[in-house]
């Protein structure tokens, strides 16, 4: 019963962790409401939230050594709940930027801490299943909140912020559903089994963990190529307008969500071949998008890519949390969240730079560069039998 309460609490909180993306549909209306604000200033609503999410992700690991993980997660939810304030206070644009600070901080605290909380209470297949649900429900929450936010924005930009009422509800439910866990370091005192097991595990700075974190960064770089170049690629190749690229990106998200929900079953079948096959799946999706210049190619390739991405993300989270010392998991997940955000942000600069060396059509060429990365990583994992060796180190 307690485990089911914990699962329900985690799922509810996972669902709202990326709720801040729901304000993006209202940006144009906010710009109309504050005509004195320039376009670049308007985008600060999103970029400030992204920056604070990154900083909060880094801070989350240290915070978990000072207060309980439940406190950190619920603090994040409370920060997101402050997103309701523009429904009451609509004084000026600066106030909206202050709200964005809390939204980014809340999202960063939650996304960095929830995987560590899962790792604390779930082992083996149950952990893979919960991490898969994290991938699935987080993606589903992002899609639904953006959709709902767009509908609310029709009635006025301030109503878009009503979606953060859901964060307040999640905060209240989390208070009752999550266990009152002690601070992580205190919890491990006297637990001899955990201490003995930890002796055979890795610190955050170990080469094994660094390599896994690097894989996670390259993974988000690959998905960044998809989201940043889809519309341009569709336009240049005459595939369709923004509605077509929007559909393709939505289908990509559906692939990621589906992969998260079936991740534990996929790992049962593929075992230590999960990573290289999933990277190969991503490469196949990119190839279809880049070569088959038709709507079916755009949509089908995006879905296939999403399936591979969701599986790799879940598998990497499992491997990192299983290989780290228990007291190092919070910091490991903080770095995971922060570094993957950086990878997503800087991917266009790197990929477009490489693509520009051999093509003027950066959008389509970037897909080919990403394809090469995915193939290279899949080959490296297969040749070195890397995943099997990593699984063998899990105690």
TrEMBL record:
Origin: domain of life: Bacteria
Q: Which InterPro entries match?
A: MFS, MFS_dom, MFS_Efflux_Transporters, MFS_trans_sf
- One example GO MF annotation: transmembrane transporter activity
Please report the stretch or stretches of sequence annotated as the Major facilitator superfamily (MFS) profile domain.
1-389
Cellular component GO terms, alphabetical? plasma membrane
The record, for Pfam families, names: MFS_1 (PF07690)
Localization annotation: Cell membrane
How the protein sits in the membrane?
Answer: Multi-pass membrane protein
Q: Which UniProt keywords apply?
A: Cell membrane, Membrane, Transmembrane, Transmembrane helix, Transport
Report TM segments.
44-60, 72-89, 95-118, 139-155, 161-178, 202-226, 246-267, 274-292, 298-320, 332-351, 363-383
Q: What is this protein called?
A: MFS transporter
Name the source organism.
Vagococcus allomyrinae
């Amino acid at each position: 019963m307690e485990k089911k309460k914990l699962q329900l609490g985690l799922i509810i909180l996972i669902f709202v962790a990326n709720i801040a993306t729901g304000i993006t549909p209202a940006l144009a209306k906010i710009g109309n409401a504050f005509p004195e604000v320039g376009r670049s200033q308007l985008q600060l609503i999103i970029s400030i939230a992204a920056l604070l999410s990154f900083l909060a992700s880094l801070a989350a690991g240290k915070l978990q050594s000072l207060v309980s993980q439940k406190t950190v997660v619920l603090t994040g939810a409370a920060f997101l709940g402050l997103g309701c304030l523009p429904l009451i206070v609509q004084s000026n644009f600066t106030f909206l930027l202050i709200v964005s600070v809390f939204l980014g901080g809340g999202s960063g605290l939650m996304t960095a801490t929830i995987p560590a909380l899962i790792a604390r209470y779930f082992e083996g297949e149950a952990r893979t299943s919960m991490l898969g649900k994290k991938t699935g429900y987080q993606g589903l929450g992002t899609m639904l909140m953006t959709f709902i936010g767009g509908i609310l924005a029709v009635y006025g930009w301030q109503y878009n912020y009503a979606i953060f009422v859901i964060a307040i509800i999640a905060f209240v439910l989390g208070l009752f559903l999550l266990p009152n866990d002690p601070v992580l370091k205190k919890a491990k005192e006297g637990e001899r089994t955990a201490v003995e097991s930890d002796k055979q595990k890795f610190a955050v700075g170990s080469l094994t963990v660094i390599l896994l974190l690097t894989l996670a960064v390259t993974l988000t770089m690959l998905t960044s190529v998809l989201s940043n170049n889809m519309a341009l690629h569709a336009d240049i190749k005459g595939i369709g307008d923004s509605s077509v690229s929007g559909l393709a990106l939505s289908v990509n998200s559906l692939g990621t969500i589906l992969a998260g929900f079936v991740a534990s079953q996929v790992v049962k079948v593929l075992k230590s071949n999960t990573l290289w096959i999933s990277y190969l799946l991503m490469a196949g999706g990119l190839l279809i998008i880049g070569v088959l210049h038709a709507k079916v190619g755009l949509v089908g390739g995006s879905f296939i890519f999403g399936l591979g991405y969701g599986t790799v993300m879940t598998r990497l989270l499992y491997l990192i949390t299983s290989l780290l010392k228990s007291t190092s998991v919070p910091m490991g997940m903080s770095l995971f969240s922060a570094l993957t955000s950086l990878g997503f942000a800087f991917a266009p600069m790197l990929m477009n730079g490489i693509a520009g060396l051999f093509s003027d059509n950066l959008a389509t060429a970037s897909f080919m560069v990403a394809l090469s990365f995915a193939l290279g990583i899949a080959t490296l994992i297969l040749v070195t039998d890397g995943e099997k060796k990593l699984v063998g180190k899990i105690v």
